[in-house]
């Protein structure tokens, strides 16, 4: 018991964060129905959005695992994401020999990850003979070969260019322990009827069930990657990033370490892809294998903190929140309070007359928002990204770590304790001085 | 032996003579010649798209991810000049004149813009890890693509489709087919080849016959030594960046007339990826290598297009082969055809 307590005490930040995320759906509902709910609904990401933050955040973390820790920019990482995603849907459609379409989701998720590992061994064995720009280019080349292949292979679906969707697996995909029905829950996006739970006073919508199940898988993957990075293996990865020649001179077979890091990262990238496919139930080459998918992971990693494991998740959260904030879609039927996006909000609060105010030469405020703000999150993200490259090169989490002088998990509690200690000793004297005056 | 395996074997038996037949078809002089011309016209486009990228990397070691976006901006800007200058009644010769006017305007504008990007954005990053230059230029593509999309959309042009109004300014004699020594050639292919040769000659002459070209070649070889000899390498960086961007934009003007490309926002990614292939196959930073690689990639592209159109039912064949060339080249000879292991100390 004391062992568990000290284990948790050393991870107090992680535990607090997980607890917060666990409470988030309820908290979100509570806040959105509060008096300032409309404004909060605008800023707070929806639970559905959080699901995609989770799986894409996992992908960005896996990208950062190899790129941020060994310094080898894996620009073709989308290939592994795509492998995981396509495997899940191929299995569900009965297109993989010897596997029925009713194969449990967790198994097809694992199968995709194993396939990605094999692919990574193949690509890595060739690519790690190169370094720097050349490494980025050859991984990009491999990923594009696969992208073009998947786009044109008509075994996958009748129109491979438009991707494929689940045809033969009518029920939602179940996350949990395969074979034990009680330990499984379905994940499903908003336009697909998933599973709801009501236990006493706890009632979870389908989106919330997906949130927890996807979140659990991502949490497990995060912990596994964190463990790997804190092992001697992870230390060697950092040594390779800092000075590869030196690491080799000490006697490390750096090629093996790099290949190992690459395959581990491919494994988790494929899990992320599989979660995405299981949640969205349809994939296209453009949102899986295309090189801009790797670009999105890079974006998340830079914003959140390159070379920090949790940073990319944070970066992705930022990306998704911003695009949701700038979208012009009104909320769907599952949102009863407020509307999504800036334009509907402005329309509601400012009124049509303000929006119709002329700015310049017949160009109204409404048109301005329509043209420059709606759905153009990549413009603002791009500007922000460039600013980050210049002024915050270590990203959000990386900068915080620099300030604290260590990882947030270990330094934040210590910093708080220090502050509290000082506060406790100084507060009485301050009060006494103020009173005595 | 199972029935499936037998069927597969008979498939192979049928496929082999089919392959030999197709190979004989392909080796027919007429076919070869037309594939060759097609390949050269593709090579001309590739060399124009890539020339700037290779110059910039050769001198300062910056892999410019925004190159494709600048080509795309060139296509739209050139298209705009053409649409303004050309009306339905404009004659063919005047349309060619308008084209060269567009080339001049776009080159001047984008070269200045490129020099500005180098001075204001790239320059502060030279001291940092080269990764940050990739990151910066990648960020620039996001901004530029989205800005163009906003502008184009605002004027009621569909950003994801080719801009037809610019395409329509092409004179009729370029769309016509000519029979030349027994093979039929599209006018635009010949125009592209001529323009590509012109660009190559101009860049080559600039690099080898002018004093500034000498500075640039010296700077690519050893920029510290060049600096020590009293040459302002920083200014050469700016000039080369501007020049490279200008050439990319001019390539864009040409693409605005080509039916397989056309001015559209996705053109940025469509040109960036083959440009990377050409530049790596040729060897980062060697202009000679880039020209050779563009010809190889162009010819392979044309060959594979023929095989796809006539024999193999797989539409991705040409595109996939291009990326396979990249992979094979990096495995066999990572420094590229004419590259040296260490380019400009990078």
Automatic annotation (TrEMBL), chain A:
Record keywords: Cell membrane included? yes
Bilayer-crossing residues are: 12-32, 52-72, 79-99, 105-126, 133-150, 209-225, 255-277, 289-314, 379-397
Picking any one GO molecular function of the record gives: branched-chain amino acid transmembrane transporter activity
Q: Which organism is it from?
A: Haloferax elongans ATCC BAA-1513
- Recorded protein name is Amino acid/amide ABC transporter membrane protein 2, haat family
The UniProt entry's GO CC annotations, sorted and at most eight, read: plasma membrane
| Principal location listed in the UniProt entry | membrane
The record, for Pfam families, names:
BPD_transp_2
Which taxonomic lineage is given here? Archaea, Methanobacteriati, Methanobacteriota, Stenosarchaea group, Halobacteria
Q: How does it sit in the membrane?
A: Multi-pass membrane protein
Is Transmembrane helix one of the keywords UniProt gives this record? yes
UniProtKB/TrEMBL annotation, chain B:
Alphabetized InterPro entries for the sequence: ABC_transp_permease, BCAA_transport_permease
| Main localization (coarse) | membrane
Specify the superkingdom.
Archaea
Does the keyword section mention Transmembrane helix?
yes
Q: Which Pfam families match?
A: BPD_transp_2 (PF02653)
Q: Where in the cell is it found?
A: Cell membrane
The entry's keywords: Amino-acid transport, Cell membrane, Membrane, Transmembrane, Transmembrane helix, Transport
**One biological process term in Gene Ontology:** amino acid transport
- Which Gene Ontology CC terms are recorded? plasma membrane
A GO MF term: transmembrane transporter activity
Bilayer topology term:
Multi-pass membrane protein
Annotated PANTHER family: ABC TRANSPORTER ATP-BINDING PROTEIN, BRANCHED-CHAIN AMINO ACID TRANSPORT SYSTEM PERMEASE PROTEIN LIVH
Q: Which family does it belong to?
A: Belongs to the binding-protein-dependent transport system permease family. LivHM subfamily.
Protein's UniProt name: Amino acid/amide ABC transporter membrane protein 1, haat family
